[in-house]
Specification:
By secondary structure, the chain is of the alpha+beta class. Helix content is 27%, strand content 22%. The protein has 7 helices and 13 strands. The strands form 3 sheets. It has a 7-stranded mixed beta sheet. Strand 1, helix 2 and strand 2 form a beta-alpha-beta unit. The two termini are 35 Å apart.
Length: 232
């Protein structure tokens, strides 16, 4: 039986940026979400940017030079404002146009790319911020509805065969290759879509964190569709 109350207990909804960055994570809460309905035509920006690779970084200078309609200009103003808010907070935002991310082919047993549910890790106190403005959005799985992959017996056995070293170094191996950051959703898990226009703050695994890190993943993009994502 799915416990929706438990799933939603991880998320604290707020109504402005100041609340988004000021409220501390506590208890099961490891996700903050600024809910909002954005105006403007973000698809126009996507259409007018020349894509240089599978992931194209859109600099504010280039964004400012685009010739846009009234609706496109409204979207641009929101992007610039979000970027400046995050910069002022001390974050380092990046605005990306994404056709698709590189798949991890080094470890067929256990890919560690962003399409796998994972936690972010930092050596210092930090949060992850993200917002999807166009295209498919990221997904979150509640911590209670996911299992760390390295404790799944068949995966752990496969990683030990890959490691082929002394037992005392196995945990270091898992950490160095980021295997310990990846999770598998349980069959009954209720996935939470990040949606369009919402600005999210996700808890990160760092030495001073008092809560579990948020587990999230990138969506499998529709072929031919480009995502517009701000992340830091």
């Amino acid at each position: 039986m799915l416990d929706l109350t438990q799933a939603e207990s991880q998320i604290q909804y707020v109504s402005n940026f100041q609340e988004l960055v000021a409220y501390p994570f506590h208890g099961e809460n490891n996700v903050m979400c600024w809910t909002r309905d954005l105006i403007g035509d973000f698809s126009e920006i996507v259409r007018k940017v020349k894509l240089k690779d599978n992931i194209t970084v859109l600099e504010l200078k280039e964004l400012s030079k685009l010739q846009l309609s009234e609706q496109g200009n409204l979207a641009r103003e929101i992007l610039i404002n979000d970027f400046r808010l995050l910069e002022t907070h001390g974050a380092s935002p990046t605005l990306n146009l994404i056709k698709y991310y590189q798949r991890d082919e080094a470890y067929p047993l256990f890919p560690t790319d962003v399409y796998s549910f994972h936690a972010d890790r930092s050596p210092i106190p930090a949060d992850t911020f993200l917002c999807t403005y166009h295209g498919d959005s990221s997904e979150i799985v509640p911590n209670s509805q996911a299992v760390q992959k390295i404790i799944i017996p068949e995966i752990r056995d496969g990683l030990k065969k890959l490691y082929q070293g002394p037992d005392e170094g196995f945990d270091v191996f898992l950490s160095e290759h980021f295997f310990d950051l990846h999770y598998q959703a349980k069959p009954e898990a209720e996935l939470i879509s990040c949606g369009i226009g919402k600005l999210w703050r996700l808890a990160v695994d760092h030495p001073e964190s008092k809560v579990l890190p948020c587990l999230h993943r990138a969506p499998n993009e529709d072929k031919g569709q480009v995502r517009l994502l701000m992340i830091c």
